[in-house]
Specification:
The chain is mainly alpha-helical. Helix content is 70%, strand content 0%. The protein has 4 helices and no strands.
């Protein structure tokens, strides 16, 4: 169940930050640094990335099968969970 909720939270966070579905406008084009991109890509574990992509696809299929009202509620809960966790991560430790 925690796996499903985590996947739904990720899908909801992505959907809310999407310029297609959200209220955000297109961000300005960021400068592209090829060397930095290659160094980041070299650190990614392919197996973990594939598992993450698979779980996101499964969560998207689950969300697609829900009624629109239920889907909106689940995405709202996921967004609330994602924002509360990001707020906790930014709070300074004493």
């Amino acid at each position: 169940m925690a796996y499903l909720m985590r996947s739904i939270a990720l899908i909801g966070l992505i959907a809310l930050n999407s310029p297609v579905h959200g209220t955000k406008s297109e961000p300005e084009a960021a400068p592209f640094d090829a060397k930095a991109a290659i160094s980041v890509l070299a650190q990614i574990d392919p197996k973990a990335a594939l598992q993450g992509a698979t779980s996101l696809r499964e969560a998207a299929e689950v969300l697609a099968g829900l009624e629109p009202e239920t889907r909106a509620r689940v995405l709202a809960l996921a967004a609330a969970a994602a924002t509360s966790r990001s707020g906790e991560a930014q709070t300074p430790q004493r």
